[in-house]
């Protein structure tokens, strides 16, 4: 006689009675599990993840490297100063979100080399490097105003490259809401025949190329054109203007990563975002290629590359499954 049968005999229970008792105990255990899950769900922060997101902000240029320059109203305007102010405002705003750590490649008017910037992002274990710039007219782009985001091509570490495009789409839409003209996403192919480990031609810009090779998302945000009258006067002239750009950047970052401020819900991603994507090459047959891509189409309910928080629908589906499996069946 096994332990169960001995226990039934000593207690005077029938097998049927014991079966009914076990069934009810099972229901109570499942109900308790459901209550625990509910409590856990309600106590969870509303961010997409409890994991701390480390963001490396990179104010472009600095020190002897002034970046783009222009003269307005008798004063010299240096891109390096605009970039730093935007970065400091952005850092201040991002630190109002939960589970966010912000690092910077420079905090004053100091020259910082490109290799130092990307190595520091690696040393800081950054999840994403956002390099902050402002543009000037030249022969690379076929426009002379507006905002653009520079990202990697999907030829190596495709998931990382895709995350750069997705993040860029959210920032571009926020900058567009401020009033800047959206010039889309720009990708540029290496001009010195440098290649990724898989043999594909690498990306031209050091920041995005090194991000791909070092394993973190890396983008360059060009907010406006220093030498364009409307861009400068409307979006770059005052500290308030620069702060508004920083707040737009912060909202774009928060939307993509599902960030939230204390006591608030995460900012939702903007869906059905259609962006122009321009690929530039000077050493291949294709000099300039323009395509369009829609990010986060609503019908597919795409999630970002970092993973999303459990949705309410998914949570309650789990509860229903537990109830149906253990409480409605004997």
* Count of helix runs: 9
User: What portion of residues is helical?
Assistant: 40-55%
Q: Give the integer mean of the pLDDT values.
A: 85
Shape: globular
What string, H for helix and E for strand, traces the elements in order? HHEEEHEHEEHEHEHHEEH
Strand line-up in the sheet with most strands? 4-1-5-8-6-7-9-10
Q: Low-confidence parts lasting 5 or more residues at pLDDT below 50?
A: 39-48, 300-315, 326-330
* N- to C-terminal distance: 25 Å
Cα-atom Rg, whole angstroms?
Answer: 27 Å
Structural class: alpha/beta
Number of strands: 10
Estimate what percentage of residues fall within beta strands: 15-25%
Largest sheet at a glance? 8 strands, mixed
Q: What do these coordinates show?
A:
The structure is a single chain. 41% of the residues lie in helices and 19% in strands. It is built from 9 helices and 10 strands. The strands form 2 sheets. Strands 4-1-5-8-6-7-9-10 form an 8-stranded mixed β-sheet, with helices on both faces. A two-stranded antiparallel sheet has the order 2-3. Strand 2 and strand 3 form a beta hairpin. Helix 3 crosses helix 8, helix 4 packs parallel to helix 6 and helix 5 crosses helix 8. The chain is globular, with a radius of gyration of 27 Å. The C terminus is likely disordered.
């Amino acid at each position: 006689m096994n332990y169960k049968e001995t226990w039934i005999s000593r207690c005077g229970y029938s097998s049927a009675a014991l079966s009914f008792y076990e069934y009810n105990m099972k229901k109570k255990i499942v109900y308790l599990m459901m209550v625990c899950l509910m409590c856990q769900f309600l106590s969870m922060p509303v961010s997409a993840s409890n994991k701390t997101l480390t963001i490396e902000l990179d104010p472009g240029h600095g020190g002897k490297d002034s970046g783009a320059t222009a003269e307005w109203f008798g004063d010299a305007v240096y891109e390096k100063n605009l970039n730093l102010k935007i970065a400091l405002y952005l850092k201040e705003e991002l630190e109002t979100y939960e589970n966010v750590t912000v690092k910077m490649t420079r905090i004053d008017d100091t020259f910082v080399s490109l290799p130092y910037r990307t190595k520091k992002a690696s040393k800081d274990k950054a999840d994403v490097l956002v390099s902050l710039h402002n543009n000037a007219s030249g022969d690379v782009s076929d426009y002379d105003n507006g905002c653009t985001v520079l990202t990697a091509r999907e030829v190596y570490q495709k998931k990382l490259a895709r995350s750069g495009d997705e993040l860029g789409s959210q920032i571009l839409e926020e900058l567009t809401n401020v009033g800047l003209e959206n010039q889309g996403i720009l990708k540029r192919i290496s001009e010195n025949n440098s290649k990724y480990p898989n043999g594909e031609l690498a990306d031209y810009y050091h920041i995005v190329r090194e991000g791909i090779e070092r394993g973190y998302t890396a983008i360059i945000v060009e907010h406006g054109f220093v030498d364009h009258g409307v861009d400068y006067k409307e979006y770059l002239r005052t500290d308030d203007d620069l702060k508004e750009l920083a707040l737009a950047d912060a909202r774009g970052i928060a939307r993509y990563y599902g960030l939230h401020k204390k006591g608030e819900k995460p900012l939702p991603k903007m869906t059905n975002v259609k962006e122009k994507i321009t690929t530039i090459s000077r050493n291949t047959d294709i000099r300039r290629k323009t395509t369009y891509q829609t990010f986060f189409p609503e019908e597919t309910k795409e999630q970002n590359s970092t993973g999303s928080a459990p949705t309410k629908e998914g949570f309650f589906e789990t509860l229903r499954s537990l109830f149906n499996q253990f409480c409605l069946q004997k």
